[in-house]
Amino acid sequence: VNNVNISELGPDGRILLYWGQTCTSCVAPKTGTYGYYVVQDYAIKGSTGANINHFYIQDSWRILPRLTLNVGLRTEKETIPSFQRSIKDYAFRFGWGDKLAPRIGASFDVFGDGRLKVSGAWGRFYDWTKYDLARGTFGAEVWVDYYRTLDTTDVLSLNLNNMPGQNIWPGVYRNRRVPGFEYVDPEVKPMSADNMNTGVEYEVKPGTVFSARWTRNKLNRTIEDMGFLDATGSEQYGYGNPGEGRYVYGPVSGETCTTKINNGQTCVTLMPKAERVYDAMELSLTRRFTSGWFANFSYVYSKLWGNYAGLQNTDEIRPPGYGAFGANQGFFNTGYRPGGNASRSWDLDEVYYDAHGNAGVYGRLPTDRPHVFKFYGSKTFKTGTEIGGFYRIMSGTPITTLVATMNDIPLMVEGRGDAGRNPVFSQTDLLVAQEFKFGEVKRLRFEFNASNLFNQKTNMYTFQNYNREDLYDTYGIDLSGTDLNKGFDWKSMVNALGPNARDPRFGKAAWFNPGFAGRVMVKFIF
């Protein structure tokens, strides 16, 4: 059950003043005596609920003395609820046959003495559809913008109950959250991924183990909202699997390439499917000494590739100064979009094009770190003292040039990772503990943990917005008349908006890892 009532902006709403400016996306007169203003009313309210039922069967067989096989099958029945049951009791649902998830694994003892073991597994895994989607698409979220001419200097009196001036939006207001029941694909399929891994473990000598593992995690499909603009310029959303079923050819708009997407003049032949593939190879060496020493070293080489950053969408980061995302009914806002099936990845056709006419912006995803080295070492003394250290160093994450449009959507105009990578990240952590025994089972443990022992400050995120996304109404580029298949000159479009359009923070360090932090813990074990 989800019962929510949050007025994000309070009873008076939020006022955005555009002094001396003209609203390029509005209708005549587009501006007033002193410019124009926007009154925003954002809230989340309503109550809903549903059940998820599960069933699985799994068993393990020792087929041969040295070969063990593990096989299982899982399924579930899921209902995604509605927050406006007067319109529809539920949004959509999946039955037992829609989420059949088989899995199989095997382990083989090569020599029969436990020194060399080979294993492998494959499985299909389904995810639940998050209520963030139900709130945003099926009736709980209110996102309303009122556009008015600014004809008074008494700006402190403006609020939801006092909006003087002339309405300049094509409709009564700009509605960013129209419930989309009629736009749900009736053949929508659940989100799933296939995971495959193989590995080998070899005891080089007593106390020393070498292991090698390879894993692949491949997304089969996701569920997403896909936006389009109606005749009044309000955002509406379809819902389904991008590139499949009803949404093979773009948001809601038709069945053939002769149909134009609502936002512009582009004829979309195929909507890009969601792709996210993670391949990784890990090599590790573990050594346990008789004198209380323990050491582990590992190296991971990996590639995270596709066009879908995932439920926790790292394509949408808001560093300091860009505002923040409202947390999913949490106490604090976040700099990243909370996890859910409702990202910006397929909102309007313009978001899945680059500036060179390529549909589907594929490449290394934002959290890709090809090289990761880790080392852990510890020493346990006979006195009950334990000292351990953990060190890791890994590649920086990709940097992508973003250009915001008048629809408040940042585009990857030059593809993914065009601007290089953030600095290499490294950090050292320390653990010191002392344990005292009382009798046979009682123990008192004092522990000190130090994170980022040497107070290293590494830039984790670089400002990627070339123009001012926080002022997208004024400095966002307008692609409504652009054939995206033919590309566009984004630099000229930004420069044409004036000298203040470019964001001075572009290319500068934005987010650093936390500095030194220490924690003391006392634990009584009995």
Shape: globular
Largest sheet: 15 strands, antiparallel
Helix content: under 10%
Q: Poorly predicted ranges (pLDDT <50, ≥5 residues)?
A: 252-263
Average pLDDT rating:
89
Count, helices: 3
Number of strand segments: 26
Supply the helix-strand structural class.
mainly beta
Q: N-to-C terminal Cα separation, in Å?
A: 38 Å
Strand content: 35-45%
> Order of SSEs, N→C?
EEEEEEEEHEEEEEEEEEEEEEEEEHHEE
Q: Rg from C-alpha positions?
A: 27 Å
Describe the structure.
This protein has 526 residues and is mostly beta strands. 3% of the residues lie in helices and 43% in strands. The protein is built from three helices and 26 strands. It has helices at 131-137, 472-475, 490-495, and strands at residues 2-7, 14-19, 35-48, 52-64, 67-81, 90-94, 101-109, 116-126, 141-149, 174-175, 192-205, 208-221, 224-229, 235-240, 276-288, 293-306, 363-364, 371-380, 385-394, 402-404, 410-412, 425-438, 442-451, 459-462, 509-512, 517-525. The protein has a 15-stranded antiparallel β-sheet that branches. Strands 1, 2, 3, 9 and 10 form a five-stranded antiparallel β-sheet that branches. A two-stranded antiparallel sheet has the order 13-14. β15 and β16 (293-306) form a beta hairpin. The two termini are 38 Å apart.
